[in-house]
Amino acid sequence: DQQVKQNSPSLSVQEGRISILNCDYTNSMFDYFLWYKKYPAEGPTFLISISSIKDKNEDGRFTVFLNKSAKHLSLHIVPSQPGDSAVYFCAAIASGSRLTFGEGTQLTVNP
Amino acid sequence: EPEVTQTPSHQVTQMGQEVILRCVPISNHLYFYWYRQILGQKVEFLVSFYNNEISEKSEIFDDQFSVERPDGSNFTLKIRSTKLEDSAMYFCASRRGTSDNNEQFFGPGTRLTVL
Questions:
Q1: Which of A36, A45, A96, B68 has the fewest CB atoms lying closer than 10 Å?
Q2: Does A69 lie at the interface with B, CB-CB under 8 angstroms?
């Protein structure tokens, strides 16, 4: 199942800089997208979401951008903090409410 | 802040045995879900539950699986005859269910190990 793909397994950035996590999707029926953060031995924690009728949603240090024509979304974290180090999952919803997840990207923010 | 809870945190069982994984969703939520993550793989949807019945299930959710909301607070996943390949993290999630709210909130997971 490759409907949601996160091509970068890992990303390393310096504290204070911007982290950009990317996600691509193939199913044009997806109309809602979410980002989750996951620490080891914990469940995914909801971060931010965006509807397909928007191209940007911002919440504090987190901004999600959606490019429907490219079937691409990204999560920007600025400024990045060491506590942001975690696995970030992109997820999408089509009809119904099941989440389809990407593989995840391990973000490491170095002090 | 309200949260989804799951018990046990770790369950070890012998192949062929039945297991029940338990979840307490957030109290005013109406939609309930089970997902699983096999080590090194994606988080996969298993089943969704609304108004005391299954609303959607994946191809993974075959006859060995069942879900139940036995009372007003618990939501359970039963695996009738476990197989080695059922070893995974199992996550419960819940969603409030208003039309403008699609966010699902996850519990900490149950690690199931089938020997």
A1: A96
A2: no
- Residue B68 pLDDT grade (very low, low, confident, very high; cuts 50, 70, 90): very high
CA B74 to centroid of chain Cα atoms: 11
CA distance B8 to B45: 20
Chain A residue numbers with beta carbons less than 8 Å from the beta carbon of B104 are 34, 46, 97, 99
How close A101 comes to chain B (CA, Å)?
Answer: 6
Residue B98 has pLDDT above 80, yes or no: no
Residue A40 touches partner B, C-beta closer than 8 Å: no
Mutate to test the interface with A, among B104, B105, B110, B111 (most CBs of A within 10 A): B104
Interchain proximity B45–A93, CB inside 8 Å: no
- Residues B44, A62: Cα–Cα separation, whole Å: 25
Under an 8 A CB cutoff, do A98 and B56 touch?
A: yes
Tokens of B44: 């996969």
Is residue A95 scored above 80 in pLDDT? no
Confidence (pLDDT) at B71? 86
- Given the candidates 2.60.40.10, 3.40.50.300, 1.10.3720.10, 1.10.230.10, the CATH classification of the domain at A4-110 is 2.60.40.10
Quick check: A99 pLDDT over 90?
yes
CB-CB contact of B20 with B6 (8 Å):
no
Domain count, chain B: 1
Closest of A48, A39, A33, A20 to residue A102, by C-alpha: A33
Q: What is the mean pLDDT of residues A87-94?
A: 95
